[in-house]
Amino acid sequence: MKKTEVLLVLISIVFVSCSRGYQQFMSSYSFKATDNMPDYSNLDYWAAHPYKKDPSDSLPKKLRKNFKADSAADVFFIYPTSYSDPDYSLGYNAPIDNAEINAKTDYKSILYQASIFNAAGRVFAPRYRQANYWCYFPKDTAAAKAAFEFAYLDVKAAFEYYLTHYNNGRPIIIAAHSQGTTHALTLLKEFFDDKLLGKQLIVAYLVGMPVRPGYFSHIKSCDTPDETGCFCSWRTLETGYVTEYIKNENYKAIVTNPLTWTDSIPAATRKDNPGSVLRNFSKIKPYVTNAVVHEGVLWADKPKFFGNIFLRTRNYHIADYNFFYLSVRNNVRRRVDAFLKTYDK
Q1: pLDDT at 27 over 70
Q2: Selection from 115, 113, 337, 73 nearest residue 227 by Cα
């Protein structure tokens, strides 16, 4: 595949309706809700885990020389959708042991996104029976809701296993993208928001999905680059562009600028962007694009890379992290350091 073709894949996304009925949805399951949860004592059920070598351990070449792993904190990463068959050949939820889907997860989301966090703490990313990609904005809301709720049961079970067997009072970062953020929102609400565990939350990166104002009762959006116990969120579109589904939202989503990390500076130039990771994971490319907070979204100018003249999409969803790879990585480290100065188990 040509370099430009891969880049087009990397930064393109479509949201469409799924129109199958609820009864068809239930009969299409390759497993039922009464099935046992995945056995999270088995490392095979983790896409990333500190007790095994996986793509989240990878580093772009520029970062390898001075890399120092730090295990003072933990990162619980919930990856985005990698099951996107429009025919639902495997049901509305992906089997957890499908080799093709897992490889897609590992060498896209885990490599290009979860690796951002490997200098800040131990990375845990559970495999889960994700809802099919085409179930966003469904005509049949019951079918889609059931699929996402089913997927969340796995995420919750994995997090509970993590808390019981691995956490031991350590500070926690919740990081997610797209469908992962859908589940992270619920997870934070259930386990952290106005809960005792909230005192262990360093920060949550809720990327690729909107966070409605007032969704949390106690967790607020981060206002400064080193604030902790808060969340950051953004959705990236080309400057001047807004999708129809965002236009139809009856609220203005909370947006963090991933280059300035403060509400007081809503705009940053390309020169403020220390480095992006595009097709070539080993290479960090500076000044790829800018970032401007605008009416519930993050606007970014058309990215600069060889072959960008072929780029037609204006929705940069799948590059939400990668456009700002080094900036996010630096910010995670900064918040961990700030948290550890005051954290008392």
Answers
A1: no
A2: 337
